[in-house]
């Protein structure tokens, strides 16, 4: 894959179909001004370009910093056949249209995937808040499920096994239970008071629920949660499944809820309610992590648990060569981090590079989210065995344990929105770095690839459901008007119109009866279709990002609120270059139907003319 970076500009590909001379104007001139006087020169080609520095940058019309933008030096305009009063041939709208067409053609000639095409794929990077990647000075990365992707069945399966073994040693009945990763998905919420697992929409209304391992009916959901919203601030009741690491715990808990309901848990374990059971399962899983058996097994056979991505190290290499400071900030300890990174990175890097060569600062045992919230002592890791010594300031090229995000900012002299942090955990990685430090944020969610493809395969199904719902809406509009007409007539009042008032009683009643029968039959057809919506992704819970046919899930609301961009894997940055300007899409609103009205009115006016 060819990537655009500063090195590429030193030896550009020939472009026989394009000549800069063509841009010389013989017509009225449009002035094109460069802000080169406020920029620092960079040695590319023959000093043709200058780079906008942090001290001279401005903000553009979308409110994004212009830091990192390239400008054309005035003294080199003659290279392009221009005379210093930079001119273009014709109106800029026409010039831009032609150049955009030629740019697309050149990308195809070079065999480079355009970002616009990448956005329309499961490997796209999706933008919630406009982000100019050129203005980013440092990019920080989480490791687990971000730079390192685990086979969920293998990793979470073993975590589940260790959890169940610990529960068994505590006296819990676990015989006959097995890990079922399809039982839960990321973004669900555990109701620790009721032993339920729920899926909520963006407002917190529960749309689907499961008690133990049994899905609840729509009627049950309405009765239990009809007057209650999911509020993640009530940590005593709700536990949000932020990451794939939550899968093993949630599966174990829901299975143990069944055992508690069946009376299979011995009374001598103390009177257990659903909240107490959740604590017991959490304790058993925590022991599996703390005692180190799980990570020791993974370190001994990483090939069984880790799914390396050959393109990922190259994406980071592009960013580093573009002048970004790269940071690794992980809660994992040094030995585990080094083993996983060596396995996943070193063989894919050029010129005998190692994974450490990519990063300006590496911080292990970071204790996120506290890393973003408060200050902890910083230690430098000085030996391969992990021996450490206290220090007070991080230096480039070194490895550290603990510390804080503020220490990182001070050490690099880079602050706030100049830093992009990339992680898979909505709270620990994305929310806290944004709320406390105003860092820009990117969320990694591998399931997006499967969901994107499932949504494409479900287009026919969803279109059929929408058509049926629209038909019922039209029928319902007529039924409601006839019902109102009948109501008014029964009170001796005229109906809405003269025609409705003069309508025969028998005709009115028969029309309403027929409409009611049709709508009831439609309901019988629509209900199971709605229930099946999203089953190509998960039969129980449907799509990750949806809650119902049209609304967003609570997970999607969290992503939009805290993640400026989101994507399925870090290597997707390869298709976008380190200089990408991510622009958020227009957000549709309930009253946006005015555009449909305007187009209809334009059609009427055209016909009259």
Low-confidence stretches: 1-46
Give the strand order of the largest sheet, numbering strands 1, 2, ... along the chain. 4-19-18-17-6-12-13-16-14-15
> What fraction of residues sit in β-strands?
5-15%
What is the helix tally?
Answer: 19
Summing up helix and strand content along with how strands pair, one would put the structural category as: alpha/beta
Strand runs, count = 20
Gyration radius, to the nearest Å?
A: 30 Å
Form type: flat
Major sheet: size, sense and barrel closure? 10 strands, mixed
**How far apart are the first and last residues' alpha carbons, in Å?**
54 Å
Proportion in helices: 25-40%
Average pLDDT:
87
Protein name: 5'-nucleotidase
Keywords: Hydrolase, Magnesium, Metal-binding
Pfam families: 5_nucleotid
Organism: Hibiscus sabdariffa
Please describe the structure with a list of short key phrases separated by commas or semicolons.
609 residues; alpha/beta; ten-stranded mixed β-sheet; five-stranded antiparallel β-sheet; 19 helices; 20 strands; 39% helix; 5'-nucleotidase; metal-binding; HAD_sf; HAD-like_sf
């Amino acid at each position: 894959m060819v990537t655009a970076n500063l090195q590429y500009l030193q030896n550009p590909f020939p472009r026989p179909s394009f000549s800069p001379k063509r841009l010389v104007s013989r017509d009225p001139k449009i002035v094109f001004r460069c802000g080169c006087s406020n920029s620092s020169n960079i040695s590319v080609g023959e000093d043709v370009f200058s780079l906008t520095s942090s001290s001279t940058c401005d903000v553009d019309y979308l409110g994004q910093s212009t830091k990192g933008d390239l400008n054309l030096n005035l003294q080199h305009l003659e290279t392009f056949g221009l005379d210093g009063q930079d001119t273009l041939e014709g109106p800029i709208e026409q010039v831009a249209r032609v150049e955009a067409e030629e740019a697309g053609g050149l990308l195809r000639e070079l065999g480079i995937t355009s970002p616009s095409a990448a956005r329309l794929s499961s490997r796209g990077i999706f933008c919630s808040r406009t982000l100019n990647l050129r203005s980013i000075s440092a990019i920080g990365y989480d490791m687990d499920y971000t730079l390192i992707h685990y086979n969920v069945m293998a990793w979470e399966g073993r975590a589940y096994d260790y959890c169940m073994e610990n529960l068994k040693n505590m006296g819990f009945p676990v015989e006959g239970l097995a890990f079922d990763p399809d039982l839960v998905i990321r973004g669900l919420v555990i109701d620790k008071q009721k032993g339920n697992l729920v899926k909520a929409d963006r407002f917190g209304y529960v749309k689907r629920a499961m008690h133990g391992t049994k899905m609840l009916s729509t009627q049950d959901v309405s009765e239990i949660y009809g007057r209650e919203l999911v509020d993640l601030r009530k940590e005593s009741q709700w536990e949000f499944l932020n990451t794939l690491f939550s899968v093993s715990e949630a599966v174990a808990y829901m299975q143990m809820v069944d055992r508690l309901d069946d009376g299979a848990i011995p009374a001598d374990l103390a009177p257990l309610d659903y909240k107490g059971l959740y604590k017991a399962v959490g304790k058993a899983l925590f022991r599996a992590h703390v005692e180190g058996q799980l990570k020791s097994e993974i370190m001994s056979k990483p090939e069984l648990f880790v799914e390396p991505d050959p393109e990922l190290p190259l994406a980071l290499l592009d960013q580093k060569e573009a002048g970004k400071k790269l940071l690794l900030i992980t809660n994992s300890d040094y030995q585990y981090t080094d083993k996983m990174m060596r396995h996943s990175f070193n063989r894919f890097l050029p010129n005998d590079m190692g994974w450490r060569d990519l990063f300006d600062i590496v911080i292990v045992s970071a204790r996120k989210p506290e890393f973003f919230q408060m200050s902890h002592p910083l230690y430098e890791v000085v030996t391969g065995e992990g021996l450490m010594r206290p220090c007070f300031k991080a230096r480039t090229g070194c490895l550290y344990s603990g510390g804080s995000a503020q220490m990182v900012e001070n050490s690099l002299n880079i602050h706030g929105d100049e830093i992009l942090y990339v992680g898979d955990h909505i709270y620990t990685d994305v929310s806290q770095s944004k709320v406390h430090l105003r860092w820009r944020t990117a969320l990694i969610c591998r399931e997006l690839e499967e969901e994107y493809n499932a949504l494409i395969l479900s287009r026919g199904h969803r279109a059929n459901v929408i058509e049926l719902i629209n038909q019922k809406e039209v029928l319902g509009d007529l039924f409601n008007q006839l019902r109102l007409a009948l109501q008014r007539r029964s009170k001796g009042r005229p109906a809405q119109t003269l025609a409705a008032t003069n309508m025969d009683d028998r005709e009115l009643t028969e029309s309403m009866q027929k409409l009611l029968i049709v709508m009831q039959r439609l309901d019988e057809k629509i209900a199971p279709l709605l229930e099946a919506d999203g089953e190509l992704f998960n039969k129980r819970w449907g799509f990750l990002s949806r809650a119902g046919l049209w609304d967003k899930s609570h997970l999607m609301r969290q992503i939009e609120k805290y993640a400026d961009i989101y994507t399925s894997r870090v290597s997707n940055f390869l298709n976008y270059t380190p200089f990408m300007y991510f622009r958020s899409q227009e957000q549709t609103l309930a009253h946006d139907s005015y555009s449909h009205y305007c187009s209809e009115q334009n059609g009427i006016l055209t016909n009259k003319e």
